[in-house]
Write a structure and sequence with these properties.
With 392 residues, this protein is of the alpha/beta class. 39% of the residues lie in helices and 15% in strands.
Length: 392
């Protein structure tokens, strides 16, 4: 992990040449589409290598570059690209490393748009995917084929928080020349460092903790200089899915307070978990740094923290009980995503038709809660009154 003074330097100073913009504390938003040249030779050089200088904001932009430097340093990576969504970062990282006839190994039940890419888009180009239970390293070894080019990880995932042994997977992949990619959205660079464990590329939804205010959508991808340039020259420029300067500025703003927000969210989360674990209607609380979590020891070994995302399993016999609970909440909002200032909830049964609900299926009774920046007592009181409504 970074020493605290290094973290402060990254968040407050790295990449910010204030002498170039009037000693302003906050960097300017370079809201320009393109950049002018005085010499034809200079223009020619950038045509030959757009990664070398500013030409057109679809590629490089000064405001975005400040953000890129900070995010690369936080991950301990050589370089970084920032996209207009997490889904874009996922697509670019995978698409850049496969060709027709290749094979991918992915963890079970990855993020929705990762799975849609594996199931719907890549098969059109004769790229196949095998899903594995990533909690056992042997499953990866058995799934690898001679044409496997990518291992895709999500550790922890965002519902049951299944974890992969990142160091072991990285060692296995490198021994066979396979590229590893991990979605680190759950932990952020402050709470998990996959590159230090040998992973090739780390991505995250910057919409969540990096932005922190629920007002920007973006994705981050970090890795080696060579890999980032390869993706920049092809997938990023061709698809035109880089982040805008204004959204990059919002993400820089979000980074300033990231440690303070994570510290508060983490403290509140533990209080909420302790309360929910005592409630008679809560069958189970799932959280990777709870001692009762099945992979607790592995979580502790590769994660510094676990932020504010947890899952509860309600003792519900009917879907209506879960509906009543969600619709009785007065302050916790029902919405997707996480990582902002506001607490959120989403029931897994929202993806089911009522007649498909089966109380014997644990997943059907799961609800994901995101703990935001509110006072713990405020959230606990809201959860209690909504649970009481179920019991009436």
């Amino acid at each position: 992990m970074l020493p605290e003074h290094d973290l402060s330097y990254i968040l407050n100073e790295l990449g910010e040449d204030r002498d170039q913009y009037f000693r302003a504390i906050a960097p300017p938003i370079m809201q320009t589409s393109n950049f002018a040249f005085k010499k034809v030779d200079d223009l020619r050089k950038v045509f030959e290598d757009e990664y070398s200088n500013y030409l057109y904001t679809r590629g490089l932009n000064p405001t975005v570059d400040i953000l890129r430097k900070k995010l690369a340093a936080l991950d301990g990576a050589e370089d970084c690209l920032v996209f207009n969504s997490g889904a874009s970062a996922i697509f670019a990282s995978v698409f850049a490393n496969v060709q027709s006839g290749d094979h991918i190994v992915s963890v079970n039940k990855p993020y929705t748009w990762a799975q849609k890419m594996f199931d719907n888009t890549l098969p059109r180009f004769q790229v196949s995917t095998t899903y594995v239970d990533g909690t056992n390293i042997d499953n990866f070894e058995r799934a690898i084929q001679p044409n496997t080019k990518v291992i895709y990880l999500e550790s922890p995932n965002s519902w049951d928080y299944a974890i992969q042994d990142l160091k072991a997977v990285a060692q296995l992949a490198r021994s066979k020349g396979i590229v590893t990619i991990v979605d680190n959205s759950y932990c952020t660079p402050l709470y998990q460092k996959p590159i230090e464990l040998g992973i090739d590329m780390v991505l995250q939804s910057a919409t969540k903790y990096i932005g922190g205010h629920s007002d920007v959508v973006a994705g981050v991808l970090t890795g080696s200089n060579a890999m980032m340039k390869k993706i920049f020259d092809n997938e990023l420029l061709n698809m035109g899915n880089g982040v805008t300067p204004f959204n990059a500025w919002l993400l820089i703003r979000g980074l300033r307070t990231l440690p303070a927000r994570l510290e508060r969210i983490t403290a509140t989360t533990h209080k909420v978990i302790a309360h929910l674990q005592q409630h008679p209607l809560v069958e189970e609380v799932v959280f990777p740094l709870d001692p009762g979590f099945a992979q607790y020891d592995l979580a502790r070994s590769q994660m510094k923290g676990a932020c504010g995302l947890l899952t509860i399993v309600l003792q519900a016999k009917k879907m209506q009980e879960i509906v009543t609970f969600c619709e009785s909440l007065r302050h916790i909002m029902m919405a997707v995503s996480w990582g902002g200032y506001e607490s959120l909830i989403i029931p897994k049964c929202a993806s089911l038709q009522p007649e498909a609900f089966d109380p014997a299926v644990r997943d059907h009774r799961m609800l994901r809660i995101y703990v935001g920046l509110e006072e713990p007592e405020y959230l606990i009181a809201d959860l209690d009154q909504a649970l009481a409504a179920v019991g009436r």
